[in-house]
Amino acid sequence: MTEGDVAAFSQLGTMVRGALSERGFSTPTAPQRLAIPPLAAGENTLVIAPTGSGKTETAMLPVFDDLVDERPEGFGALYITPLRALNRDMLDRLEWWGDFLDLEVDVRHGDTTDYQRSKQAEDPPDVLITTPETVQAMLTGDRLRDALADLSHVVIDEVHELAASKRGAQLSIGLERLRDLSGGFQRIGLSATVGDPSEVGQFLTGGRRCEIREIDVGSNVDVTVRQPEIRPEDEQLAGQLMTEADTASHVRLIRDLVEEHESTLIFVNTRQTAEALGSRFTELDLPIGVHHGSLSKEARIDVEDRFKAGDLDGLLCTSSMELGIDVGRVDHVIQYKSPRQVARLLQRIGRAGHRRDEVSIGTIVTTRPDDTFEALSIARRARDGEVEPARIHEGSLDVVANQIPGLVHSRGSVHVRDAYETISRAYPFRDLELETFREVLGELHRNRIVWFDEGEDRIETSGGTWQYVYANLSMIPDEETYEVHDIASSSQIGTLDERFVVNFAQPGEVFIQRGEMWRIAEIDDDESRVKVSPIEDPAGEVPSWIGQEIPVPAAVAQEVGEIRAVAEPQLEAGADARAVGRELSGRYPGDEYTLTEACTQLERQVDADADTDAADTSPMPMPTADRIVLERQGRTIVLNACYGHMANETLGRLLSSLLGQRAGSSVGLETDPYRIELEVPTSVATSDVLEVIEETDPDHVQAIIELGLKNSDALAFRLAQVSAKFGALKRWQGQGSGRLSNDRLLAALEDTPMYEEAIREVFHEDLDVERAAAVLEGLQSGEIELVTHRGRTPVGQGGRSSGGKELLAPENADAGVIETVKERLQDDRVILLCTHCTEWKARTKVKRVQEQPKCPECGSTRIASLNPWADEVVQAVRAAEKDDEQEQMTERAFRAASLVQSHGKQAVIAMAARGVGPHNAAQIINKLREDETEFYRDILSKEREYARTQAFWD
């Protein structure tokens, strides 16, 4: 036993040391050696160590020791976890210690029975395991508040997870309210590896002193990056799975890795991917389960127990399994596709091993060059401890609005200054101004949530306070849930979040749930129900939604750019992809095949004779960390820029907004960490893009983006959620933001704290204004090089959209979807209007339209095909005198009529599609194609483009 071992356990009393002996704890783990001394001394402490390394006992042994010495009358300690599933695990782990030490350990959360709650209020347990939301509820009860006055310790598990969320911001105020009750307590945080430990420590303690004890996780992680090599056996497997050989190779490699180990967690980035992979393993009858947040509690517990018992060799899971849910011994972790962030990789791979500080072993299985280079960068950064910081929500005004009614409800009449001081002691609200606090108060007063007596400067309860407090214990957004029903059997198969339904769902779209593929047949907003039909042949479909992406940080994207910059001169000097890959292998953990495959894309990029559609054969420039390559083909402009998701999204919105203003038309936008893709009107020249970049003041980036957000559905959705926390909207009641008038909502709330918070949240969650402005400044100063290229390049075409479907089907295996689109369009209604005599108008279904529509009144073939709700266009065409808006409507109708006159019913079909006007319809019609299927496929493509970009349109 080392000196450190003796020093750690010797800090504990006789009873706890006896429990350690009984439990078989002869020597402490690394985090116990480091952290028990300051914890036993009563210091606020943040313990940073991987899951499974004994963090729970590290925190609780000194707490138990203190409670044994001085038995509390009320609650002695709270153990707060972000998941109910963790509560269950913690109770299983801590009950033994409580029994041995004669301390009562209990759990309390939303499912706790009224009887148990009452018993806890009358006779509080010594240690209570609970959630952040239940802490909020406990602060409202008189007897519970009395019991909390005895509190001496608060342990927050997975504190890094809470620090980066509004739930955590709410909890930080809750801790200050607990301090007002108890007069102070020891704060203990248990965290995964983070890039800014001191910031998380300040979050934990409210800016007070905090000891930080951190285990170096990177040195104990062994990660290999592998892209599957297609083998002869994969062709046979592809036939069995009805997919392509490269997809089969992914499944085969994961299968082989699982078979090589005893118990493997397979992490994926979205629930959709978990379901898709799960369906493949089900077809192969492999003992691999699926675990994610959309499954029922019973289903999750079942697969956890089967995995722990050894009945399952592998468990497919999403971020929910990153946290410390006990699934027994794990000896290997697979990450399918890049984990996108260093912190995620460390937390996921860190779930393997940990028997006496052994190395955690994991494999990242990648699918294409972007994915591989990104994974290599993340693996290297993980090894060297270069982790992203936790992004704390600073000054969330809806959290302030949420906490004021709770304060008043529990204390009665409160002076404004006292309430302000409690809230501003919490670390995320240290910079909250009193004037802003008063503005929030005024809004709550107008919404009758509290009574604000400005004369007395006091806050009091109102008729709505009690109801508000109990309806808003959580900062998790209130989103309606849609039931998903099989249209044939009427049975419910699952649920969908409102955000998914509002932003994606429409008849004909395909998604995966419960490992099966479904096509949306009908959406009933009144009943909050989505009717679907099963897809019998999954190989014949392409899912049109692949889930929300985890944002790739700028630092990771920049390193991918640096890898390209290192490779470029070697390739130009004549080295091949294999030689460059061998050179990279000295720094990055990839095998020769994986590195060679990734570098092949770069080899093609520098080859002047690469097989592209470029109009010239000049050498193709390489996008790097300090070089942006702008390439153009037709209406598509791609800026290859290695700045990560959020900076690229910011730059993309800036460009689409300013170019759209110049063109007087919308500009489509799609971004990934390495590209900004714009779909521009033909009137937009490449020189226009360069001018916008050169002339836009970097200091104006935020203002321009905010202006562009004003009419967006994305802002309206967040504003509806924020305003619900202010009591400004009835809590949904079937009126989600997708069915509210966004224009009226945005206009009514523009000059309020709610609008300010919604804007802050969009910028915090989705955008990086500071870095985008720095990129713009770098381009203007010449520090960042900008080169242009005519035509597409191999790197430019290698975006995320090219790799999202490999699990399910080849790109054009979508016959069922195309047929559905065709049927839907034929059943859609249109208005036909004669633009010659303007007298004849008819409403009809597309399928009833003649091949060459003709006016029955005057015989003209100049028939405009309009949307079924476009009566104002009809009125505009017929008006004798027209204002500017009516002139625009009339011009649009005439363009539609010209198209119908030239192309007949084909034009009517194209313009019946969602988001397809005369301009896009003409593009679709004028394209040469071999069969009708291609015509409908192009319509579907335009509809999907519209669905992706409509949030940015006026």
From TrEMBL:
Family assignment from sequence similarity: Belongs to the Lhr helicase family. Lhr-Core subfamily.
PANTHER family with a match to the protein in the record: ATP-DEPENDENT HELICASE LHR-RELATED, ATP-DEPENDENT HELICASE LHR-RELATED-RELATED
UniProt GO MF annotations: ATP binding; ATP hydrolysis activity; DNA binding; DNA helicase activity
EC number: 3.6.4.12
Protein name: ATP-dependent DNA helicase
GO biological process, one term: DNA repair
Keyword Zinc (UniProt): no
Signal peptide extent: none
Alphabetical list of PROSITE patterns matching this protein: DEAH_ATP_HELICASE, HELICASE_ATP_BIND_1, HELICASE_CTER
Keyword tags: ATP-binding, DNA damage, DNA repair, DNA-binding, Helicase, Hydrolase, Isomerase, Nucleotide-binding
Domain Helicase ATP-binding: 36-212
Helicase C-terminal domain mapped to chain residues: 253-398
